[in-house]
Amino acid sequence: MGTEPRAAARRGPDLARPDATSVHITHWHAPGRDAGRALLDEVSDRWAGAVWPDGLLSFHAYLDTGGDTVLTYVQAARPTAHHDLVRTLRGPAAAAAVSYRLHTSVVLDGTGTPPGAVVVATFDVDGADAQERIIKSVARAVTDAPAEQREGMLSAHFHASTDGSRVLNYAEWTSDAAHLAFLEGAARAATLRATGATPGVRPIGFRRFHLHHSITPERSDT
């Protein structure tokens, strides 16, 4: 039986939920903020209007602070659930995603503070061993940094692509300003050193996003 999605309050995904065994992430580029918002609305409307297959858990859509990149983050209880829905859609909403599994989470603030910004950093890597090395290295750099050097960082969630080619860090921050301050500090330099010292890893870059749409399923009576 499928599910009828419902629009939720602007809350990010629950990355700790144990039933989310796969994550599917898609990026689109837009020629400007207005176009980015329109693309984000179009894709989100397609997902909100679809009947979700069993196993699809959540959909979250983001616009980056530059206004030219849209990102969607989809959680699923089974890897094929994402494909099962996407093949029924049209337009940009039907774009293929990179499939990940959540590998490691570093939670620095367990009080439930809602993030004001999400920073997504991606790495091109040479297989599963390189995925393990870069995740351990960057996670250690984050946890070893003095608290004052990472003030405002709530969590860092490291995802490994199922094909062994990517690592993605989904980091939650209290605000844009907190992340900007981090970029100028010693902890940021330590993470860069950790990346540079890890063979088989090539940083792709990062973008800072704000959440715009959040959809979760609600089981239908039909």
How would you describe this protein?
An 8-stranded antiparallel β-barrel has the order 2-4-3-9-6-8-7-5, surrounded by 4 helices. The longest helix is centred in the middle third of the chain and has 17 residues. The N and C termini lie close together (8 Å). With 222 residues, it is an alpha+beta fold. 27% of the residues lie in helices and 38% in strands.
Provide a compact summary of the structure.
The protein has 222 residues and is α+β, with helices and mostly antiparallel strands.
Largest sheet: 8 strands, antiparallel, barrel
Radius of gyration: 17 Å
Order of neighbouring strands in the sheet with most strands = 2-4-3-9-6-8-7-5
Shape: globular
Low-confidence stretches: 1-9
Termini distance?
Answer: 8 Å
Keywords, separated by commas or semicolons:
222 residues, alpha+beta, 8-stranded antiparallel β-barrel, globular
